[in-house]
Predict the structure.
Amino acid sequence: MASRNEIRLHQTNGYIELTLTFTKAGIMALQNEFETNHSFGEIIGKNKKMQHLFTQIQIAAAGDITVLIQGETGTGKELIAKSIHDNSPRKAGPFVVINCTAIPAELIESVLFGHERGAFTGATERRIGMFEQANTGTLFFDEIGDMPLTLQTKLLRVLQEREFQRIGGTSNISIDIRVLAATNRDLQISIQQAFFRPDLYHRLSAFPITVPPLRDRREDIPILAYHFLKKYAAATEKPIRDISTDTLQTLMQHDFPGNVRELKNAIESAVLFETTDQLQPQSLPSHLTQGDSQVATSSPRDTTVILPLDEVERRAIVHALKVTDNNIPDAARALGIGRSTLYRKLKEYNLLL
């Protein structure tokens, strides 16, 4: 029979730390719960700001309104745009992405509007632009804040009139598209600095969505970390099923200036380096662990970062089940709770066997 001490809860300077391992069933149940209850398509999060974001996506998807998605680099703005498209009446149509920072300024007009043969030197054949490619679907302008001012004027006209001409053309081409846009810039500041047209801003921001940075929703880091672990362990066919407590604490200490993209890249890299069935701190990219001499130890550490309380409780339950070989009465006694309470929490955390 297990004792309470086997759960190994530690309190250091007022902060609770927990040392245990997951069972494979517990990990899979956690992943299934998160992906079922805390996701919208490929966007994952249980933070209140993310739950509000999911509601905004649903509302935006139901109509045809122009949406401006604002957020730092790596927060998943394109995923949000794709989710809006995929859940909208236009989902059967194309979803066309134009990255305003990736296309040279002298080419972006041709890429958008297309051109006729002979329109300029090198135009040896007619080219269909992205406006036409997106007809009946959605055209997503990524990093719209970097669009040249001269092109902003032409984009505004297309949004108003829903027609345009190819470069070198003489006939108007009507289009039926929905426009979504995203930026990592503060467009209000860009307007003040005369880098962005205020009339285009008001046209684009009919339905604004702000994506919170990962540092403002740290409780989502374990959810995302396990999601990426599952994805990349399967892709590399490696038997990694768990993330150590020290690794999670290291991740939760980091501010992630690159946001979810940085976390995704870190887990993908760590999976390649990991040689055990549990992701360890030493497999993480060095910039996450530098200066932390204790990161590879299993002893409790003095840290101002703690796991969310529900995660601590869920881990304690999973560990008790493992130690007692899934014996519910023994696990309940070890946890110091009644059997009915344990059953209720098993259901709450989707851990029913």
